[in-house]
Backbone:
């Protein structure tokens, strides 16, 4: 099974289109038999994605730092991996994934840069 990592926000944003597109993305990934890796939180677009994937019987793995796992860790994921730091979170998400999707421009640019640092052959 192929694995897609998503980089979505901890907020749903002010425009309903972000929620609607996250639901479309989740359904598309499940229907095309992708496993999904996410930030592991039960807030914002991460929660929308996770709940939609769970509802449609898909597989979703969350990766979350220990300092926020008890507060916002999603309890119903296929698997929740708890790591020590944000850096370990990004590295683990990278290790688990074959491809990456991001909705937030600034976060995606930062994460994309980290992907290149972690794996110069990525490009």
Residues:
């Amino acid at each position: 099974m192929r694995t897609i990592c998503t980089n979505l926000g901890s907020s749903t944003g002010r425009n309903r289109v972000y929620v609607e597109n996250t639901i479309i993305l989740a359904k598309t990934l499940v229907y095309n038999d992708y496993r999904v890796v996410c930030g592991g939180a039960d807030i914002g677009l991460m929660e929308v994605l996770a709940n939609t994937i769970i509802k449609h019987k898909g597989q979703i793995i969350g990766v979350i730092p220990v300092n926020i796992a008890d507060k916002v860790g999603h309890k119903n994921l296929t698997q929740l991996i708890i790591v020590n730091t944000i850096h370990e979170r990004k590295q683990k998400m990278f290790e688990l994934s074959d491809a990456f999707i991001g909705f937030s421009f600034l976060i995606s640019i930062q994460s994309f840069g980290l992907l290149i640092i972690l794996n110069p052959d990525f490009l």
Remarks:
- The mean pLDDT is 85.
- Helices lie at 16-31, 44-55, 66-72, 86-96, 105-118.
